[in-house]
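User: Colanic acid biosynthesis glycosyl transferase WcaI. Structure?
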Amino acid sequence: MPDDSAAFRAVAPAVAVPPRALMVAMSYWPEPAGSAPMMTDLATAFAAAGTDMTVLTARPNYPGNRVYDGYADGSQDHRTVDGVRIERLFTIPPRGGGMRARLVHEGVLHGGFLAARARGRVARHKAVLSLCPSIFSVAVADRFRAPGGRHVAIVHDIQSGLAGALGMGGGAALKAIQALERTALNRADSIVVLSEAMRDVLRDLGVRRPVTVIPPHVDADAIHPLPRPDGQPPTVLYSGAFARKQGLEQVLEMARHLHSLRPDARVLLRGQGGLEEELKAQATAMGLTNVEFAPLSPKERLAEGLAEGDVHLVPQRPEGAAFAMPGKAVTILAAGRPFVCTCLPGSALARLEAEIGAFLSTPPDSPEAMAKAVADLLNAPDRSAAMGRRGRAWVEAHASRSAVLARYAGLLMNGEVE
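Assistant: Predicted structure:
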């Protein structure tokens, strides 16, 4: 991601944006999964439109469990990349995925954020964006808002809901997180969520600030449809973090069923994370000869990597579906490929499927149904191609950089959504 700010600004769309803005977020480039790609695209879009943009973030570590090579010594804690000033802080990446490890990780990092404010390393701003996860980022960001300024909290995960649904932490810990969420979010000027279902959850939690639904977005210029590679077998692709909330155990079961339906197809799992070794061991124990593992594609080759999938997978743990909206779904749609997801009726993905008809949903924890849906798409390439075109058209209209930039800018400047 070289610093080429002048060229980047020259092609930016004409959008009224704040002159200066700060983003407080745990995740940012070069992290390739989770919220980082969306936050990176949003920050660089503001910079391209003329905002003096600063990002306060962690030394990169997600989705693994250690700080990336070249960052641990702090030598890259102050950089300007694509017109965005990036200020990074020390953290202790969580190991094992438990509640305690996450709290240490987030607590150390956000203590550093507050220290950066106290020492004047990062000034107060009139326009402040924060990202949840972590809710601590939302709470801390309020300290960076200048008098008369506006703070917009972007909620990608409702942490108390996910933690409870996934069995992380006891009742007292969850109540404490809920109280922090309610307090921190009610101090923001505006809140952005990714789906109507997430807005409903926040209302039930006691959040009373204005809540706007803006779907996950993607750089639709960088991620675009490409031809599938010549000579590869029919490929079913999962690309992303290997984490509990993805429910990847059902993907391995799906692969077992798919082998009897389409023995020529391979299931390619691209990613990294705390469950990687566990998944590999499970695949070996199940004798899954049609499953392959590979690292995530680098950012500059992401469109090529997505083109490898004839059909993509977006699995979710059902109990967490109301508390998060998978950003990878929009990235896949931008690449012009159909996918099969797991979701419950009335969830964000179920509503989107009914709206655009660009993918198929199956019940959670029903790998046989998922395998059948995948086989149906592999067996009908014309149908799959038509679904891919519909998905791409929806992204261009609703989830591209240009479609969301003006909406975020309006919230930051006057509280109105364009």
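The chain has two domains: 5-217+401-413, 235-397. Residues 235-397 form a domain with the Rossmann fold fold (CATH 3.40.50.2000).
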